[in-house]
Specification:
2 domains; alpha/beta; Arc Repressor Mutant, subunit A; 5-stranded parallel sheet; Rossmann fold
Length: 205
């Protein structure tokens, strides 16, 4: 059932139970995709911007931040990203709410392996463009943020240096990754090398 894709797709899975994360990661591996698991929604959010993915799968009921709250934040940070929610048996109200909020689909527990894989594969095979930012030029502020990212600065450090809110820096970082079509800092460094530092304009807003 391995998928035939031009590039290896990346799926992020969020669940607070270690045994569930292990089982789902093993199951998703059958599709030939890259899988990254998180135990906390907050940790996932830190990676959604810098490290883009093709599908986010999250359990609804989790401590601290639940799946619905995570979906809300993802719709703001990465509106192109499809989200598959795992709900409790018979939890129709939550499922309906999630779909109205923009979830790609939902699936009920207990997960049936073949049904789960078919649903994931169906979402990943949809060829709708996931990002309208790709290829657009960087703004002057984004170029400044990009220089600081390359120099190894964290979002908090960049926010302090530029006098911006951390969330604003996160948004700029997200836009940079999307415009340059890269998924992590390593790819970003390589892309910047291809661009050539000489192409960067001097500091300015």
């Amino acid at each position: 059932m391995a998928m035939k894709t031009r590039a290896r797709q990346h799926v992020v899975f969020v669940d607070d139970e270690p045994s569930v994360r292990k089982a789902v990661a093993r199951t998703l591996a059958k599709l030939g995709v890259e899988v990254t698991c998180f135990s906390r929604a907050a940790d996932c959010l830190e990676e959604i911007g810098p490290r883009m993915c093709d599908l986010l799968i999250t359990d609804v009921k989790m401590p601290e931040m639940d799946g619905i709250a995570l979906l809300t934040e993802v719709r703001r940070l990465a509106p192109w990203l499809p989200v598959l929610l795992i709900t409790g048996y018979g939890d129709v109200a939550l499922a309906v709410k999630a779909m109205k909020m923009g979830a790609a689909d939902f699936i009920e527990k207990p997960l049936q392996k073949e049904t789960f894989l078919q649903k994931v594969e169906s979402i990943l095979k949809q060829n709708t463009p996931r990002d309208t930012y790709k290829g657009r030029p960087l703004t002057m502020t984004e170029l400044k943020v990009l220089k600081l990212i390359i120099s190894g600065k964290s979002n908090k450090e960049i926010a302090r240096l530029l006098g911006r809110a951390v969330r604003t820096v996160e948004d700029h970082r997200n836009h940079i990754m999307r415009k340059l079509d890269v998924h992590n800092v390593i790819e970003l460094v390589e892309r910047v090398g291809q661009m050539g530092l000489a192409e960067w304009p001097p500091s300015g807003r």
